[in-house]
Amino acid sequence: IRTGPDHILFVLVLLLPSVLVFAAGSWHPVTTFGASLWRILKIVSMFTIAHSITFVLAGLEVLPLPPSRLVESVIAASIIATALHNLHPVVVNREWVIAFVFGLFHGMGFASLVSGLDVSQTTKMVSLLGRNVGIEIGQAVVVLLLFPGLFLLRRTRWYRPVFVLASLGLALVAFGWMLERIFEV
Question: Which of 133, 135, 163, 174 could share a disulfide with 79, CB 3.0–4.6 Å?
Answer without folding.
Answer: 174
